[in-house]
Write a structure and sequence with these properties.
Structural class: mainly alpha
Strand content: under 5%
Largest sheet: none
Order of helices and strands: HHHHHH
Length: about 130
Amino acid sequence: ALKSDHPYYSHVGRVIDGIKQQSNGDDQVNPLEMLLEAVINIKRQGNDQQRAALNVMLRQMRDQALQVQDLKASEFFAALIAIMADQPASLPADHPYHDEIQRVIDGIARSNQGILSKIGRWFKRIFGSGS
């Protein structure tokens, strides 16, 4: 577990608290979706401190998955760690997290995806989901 004197402890805590707050009372918010969006946006536009904090959080999640012997989840987090380190990452097609990893890779590759996603969410809030 991350110790309270670690330089990124408060940043990781804020990310986790933000996910929890976003999820409270809203069944439509998926923490996995939020994590994927965070990886895409921080990888593309984040500063060094944000990247380091995300890496700490991903490593902690991978370690927790290993502790409970969830091999598939640990492989998923290992792939996200590799992506953040500019290393190749992929999972077999039959892996339960294959599509999520591919979505992160594709999301990072699209230069304007983050901005369009934010604009799309903004329009949905103002005008509703459409017809």
